[in-house]
Fold this protein.
Amino acid sequence: MSSVNLNRAKLLISCKDQPGIVAATSDFLLKYRANIVQSDQYTTDPKGGMFFMRIEFDLEEFETTYKLIESEFNSIASKFEMYWRLSDPNKRKRMAIFVSKDDHCLMELLWRYKAGELTVDISMIISNHKDLQSLVESYGIPFYWIPVTSSTKKDDEQKILSILKDNIDFIVLARYMQILSPQFVAVYPDRIINIHHSFLPAFIGANPYKRAFERGVKLIGATAHYVTNDLDEGPIIEQEVLRVNHRYSTEQLKVAGRHAERIALARAVSWHIDDKILVYKNKTIVF
Amino acid sequence: MSSVNLNRAKLLISCKDQPGIVAATSDFLLKYRANIVQSDQYTTDPKGGMFFMRIEFDLEEFETTYKLIESEFNSIASKFEMYWRLSDPNKRKRMAIFVSKDDHCLMELLWRYKAGELTVDISMIISNHKDLQSLVESYGIPFYWIPVTSSTKKDDEQKILSILKDNIDFIVLARYMQILSPQFVAVYPDRIINIHHSFLPAFIGANPYKRAFERGVKLIGATAHYVTNDLDEGPIIEQEVLRVNHRYSTEQLKVAGRHAERIALARAVSWHIDDKILVYKNKTIVF
Amino acid sequence: MSSVNLNRAKLLISCKDQPGIVAATSDFLLKYRANIVQSDQYTTDPKGGMFFMRIEFDLEEFETTYKLIESEFNSIASKFEMYWRLSDPNKRKRMAIFVSKDDHCLMELLWRYKAGELTVDISMIISNHKDLQSLVESYGIPFYWIPVTSSTKKDDEQKILSILKDNIDFIVLARYMQILSPQFVAVYPDRIINIHHSFLPAFIGANPYKRAFERGVKLIGATAHYVTNDLDEGPIIEQEVLRVNHRYSTEQLKVAGRHAERIALARAVSWHIDDKILVYKNKTIVF
Amino acid sequence: MSSVNLNRAKLLISCKDQPGIVAATSDFLLKYRANIVQSDQYTTDPKGGMFFMRIEFDLEEFETTYKLIESEFNSIASKFEMYWRLSDPNKRKRMAIFVSKDDHCLMELLWRYKAGELTVDISMIISNHKDLQSLVESYGIPFYWIPVTSSTKKDDEQKILSILKDNIDFIVLARYMQILSPQFVAVYPDRIINIHHSFLPAFIGANPYKRAFERGVKLIGATAHYVTNDLDEGPIIEQEVLRVNHRYSTEQLKVAGRHAERIALARAVSWHIDDKILVYKNKTIVF
C-alpha cells in the first residue's frame, strides 16, 4: 500500500549453501540493532546446492545505520562469496514501461500505480507507436516515441538506451511487440519483465489463439517472465489461467488472454518492486 | 447423483446449420409429448457452419414412447443429414478402465462410482500389470491382466478387443502407459478418454516434470481428451491446473500433477457418461 | 467484441413449464426465417416448475422482420403466460454508473468499455462525491454530483431519478456507498447491479476485513448481485475469490478484495449487457 | 513424498518479538553444525508484536545431536520466553481419524497415506457408526465403533479418550457428526482438525445447501480449521472453492461441497503433519 515503512530495508542473498550463513547474517544485523520482521530462506540442496535468503528488517536511526550496513556487509558477503543486494525504502525503484498499441497491460499498471499498490516511480513510457501518447501524458508521465524498423534497429535501441541511461532501474514490456537484441538485454539482466500468452498445450508460432480455438482449449493463460536471449524462455515469475469454453470465439479467447496477461504481469511487477524475486539459472525463487 | 430419472432421455444432434432444425426437432418431440427439461444449442457459424444440439426430455409411458422416438426420428434426421444419438436412462453406459501401475486416476473413478456420482457400469478393468488386481477385485469388478510387449502388441490388442467385444461402450485410459495402435483406436472413435499432464509452456519429450522444475513453473496442469491417432493431440474435454512454487521438488510437482489428473479425468468421464459432449473436428462441444 | 452482429437478436423467456413451449417458439421464429445460432433452456422442475429460455437468432432484412416478431410474439407469449423480452442489437443498452470515492470498479468498467468488450452506452456517471469528476469527464461521459445526506435523501433520490429518467436502461453500483430506498429500487427491478465483498465465513457488520484478518482467512471474495430491498441479499450474478495468506495485512486484504470486486462486477455487467441473465425468485439463471 | 530425509529436523518457535531471536537461534544451531535448508519467519508487528519462525535443518550424526539440541535449546527458549517445538523425522506423527457415515474425506486421506503423500501413522479410526468398518479394516487400520448418544456423551468421550491415550498425536474429524465437548477439546489444543462446508454468503443453520441452491450461489466452498470451543469458529487452516451454476441441484451442490472438503482437509492435514502451522489467537500462520 501507499503507507511504505521508511525504516524497513530488505536484504537479498544468494550463494553456495554452506553452514553458518544464517548465523553470520543475523549476527551482523543484530549488531546494528536491526529488527528482523520477515525472512525467508530456501536451499536447492543442502549438499552443494544454492542458498537463497530474503530478510526484511526495521532500523532505528535509519539513514546512518543503513549506510553502515551497506558498507560493512561486504565482510560477510565476501566470506561466503555471496551475491547480495540491499533495498532502501527511501529510494523507490524507477520503472520504464515499453508498449506498442495494446493498452491493457499498461492500463493495469497505471491504475495500480495510482491506487498506491505499486510503490515505484514510473520514469517514462517508451513506445514504437504514437497511439498511447495522450493517455500516458494524462498521467503526467513522459512518453517517448521511438519507432523501430528492422533496418535501423541497432540505432533505435541505442536511442532508447540513451534515454533510459541512469534514469531507470528496470523495464516492463507491457505488450511491446519488438524483440530486443541480446546487446540490449545484456544491459538489464533479470531486470526486464515480459508478458506473453500461454496455452496448454503449447501453440508455438503464428496465430496461437486461432489454433487454441480450433483445438477447443478449456483454459487460456499468460506467463510473466524475465527476458533472456531465448525468446519467451526466460525465468518464469508468475502464471495465470482463466476458464473458457467452446462458445468463445477466437476474438473472445484473445480477450480472456488479455485479462490473464493483466493479472499475471501486474503481480510479477509488484513482486519485482518489493524485491521478492531471486533468479537462479532459468528459474525464479519468489519469496 | 444416484437418483437417475428413468423417464429422462437425451438427444444429441450435429449437422450442417440450416433453418428449421430446432423447430422440426421440437415439433417432433412435442408430438410424442416429450417435456423438454433442458436444452443447449450452438452453431459455429450461422452461414455454412455446424449446428450442435443437446436436449434432455421426460417421457410418460417411457418404454413405448422411447422406442417410437428412436425409430421415427430418422425422418427428421435424414432430412437435415444429422448425426444423432439418443440416450436411454435405463441403459447405463458400460465403461472399461485401462490402467498400468499408478492408481490415482483409477481410485478417483472408483470412489465417484461407489458414491453414486457416476451413473455407469464398470464392466472391467484391464491392465498390463498385476499390481492393482486385488484392489480392483475388492470392488467386485473383473480384472484382466494383459501384458503388452512391443513384439506381441498386435496380438495383445486383439486379445483385449476380444474381451471388450460387445461388453463395453467406452474406454478410460486412467494412466495406461501403452500407446494404442490406430487399428485399436478406430474401433472406438470419440469413445476413448485419456489423461495426460500439461504445462505452460509445454515440455515435450522426456522428463517433463524435471524440466518444469528447472524452469520454475508456477502452475501444473492436466488435460483430459479423446484419443485419436495423433498422440495426446485429440479433442480436449477438460483441463485443470494447480498452483505450485519454487519449493516444490520434482517429486512434489508430480504429486500436484497427479491431483490435477484426478480432477480433470473424473470430470471428463462424468460428462461423457451424461452425454454432455459432442466432438467436431479436433474440438469438443461440452454442453 | 466490438464487432457486434447487427442482424442478431436475442429472445428471453420465462414461464411455467408446460409441453410445447420450445416447439411453439421455434416454429414462430422459423416462420420469420430466423436462424437460431445459440439457445439455452432450463427447467427448475418438469412438473410444475419454471421454464427459462434464451435464444440468439439471426434475421435477414433485420429491421422489418424484427418489428414483426416484436409485435407478433405476444400471440405465443399470452398462450403460455410468458414473461419475455426481445433484445435489438441496434439499440445498445444505456448504463448509468453510480460511484462514491473508490475508483477501481469504475475504472475496470471504463477500460472494458473503451476496449470494446462491453457493447453498451455509458449515459452518465452519478456520484455523491466530486473526487472522480475529472477522471470521468476525460472519457467524455457526463458526470453528475449529487451529494446525499440522510436528512435530504428522499429529495436527493428524486433528483437522481429525474436525471436518469428515460435516459438509461440499468444501473451499476460501482462501490456506491449509499443505500438506495425501496422506492428507488422499485423503479429498476432486476436492473441495478451491486458489488460487495464476501467472505467464508461471513463477517457481517463493521470492519469485515479487520475481522477476516484476525480470523486468518485464506480466501477473499466478492459477489455481484441484483439489488433488492434486502441489503446485499439479492440474486447473485457472479462470485470471485482470490487466495491470500497470513502475510496479508488488513490493508492488503482490502487490495485483494478490490481486485476480486473488479473481476466479479465486470463479468456480471457484461452478462447483463449480453442479456444472459434471467431472474427467478432470489436466484439468477445465467445462460 | 515417501522419501523422508531422516536427518532433517524442524524447529518451530513463537514468542514476543524482540531483537536477537534469529541470531541467537541460528548461532545455537550452527554450534551443533545444523545446516539450515529452509526457514520462514514472520512478525505480526515489529513493535510489541508476535514473532513466528519455522526452521528445517539437517544434522550429521542425527541421533546424538538431535538429543543435545532438544535438551539444550531451553537455554535460548527461556531467555526469549518462547513457545517452541522440535520435530523428529524418525518419529512419525500418529493420527486418529474420526468419521461418521460419509466416507469421502476418509477415503482421500487413506489414499494419500497409501500413496506416500502423508508421512504419518494412522493409529486408529473411530466412528459412531459401523458403516465404514470393513473399508477401514481392509487398510489394516484398527477401527473402533463408539456410538455416542446425548445421554451418554460424557461416558462415550471418556471411552474414546481412554482408547486414544498415549497412542496418538492429533485427531482429524473427517466428517464426524458429533460435537466434541470442551473437556475433550481441551485435551488436544490445536491438534484437532475439522472440515466444514462454507459459503459466500454464509448460510448458518439448517439445510445450508438447500438455501445456497435457492440463493443461486456460484461458488461452493469448504474450510479446514482447528477445533476450539466455538463451533466451527476455530483458526482456519485452508479453504477451497469450486464453481457451480444454476443447473446444479441441491444434491449436486452437495457433491461439489464434498469435493471441496476432500481437497481442503487433505491439504490441512498434510501441513499439520509437516509442522507447517503455528497457531496464534484465532489464526494460523502456515509457512
The first strand of chain B starts at residue 8 and ends at 16. The CA atoms of residues 48 and 122 of chain B lie 40 Å apart. The interface with chain C takes residues 17, 19-23, 26-27, 29-30, 33-43, 46, 58, 243 of chain B (CB under 8 Å).
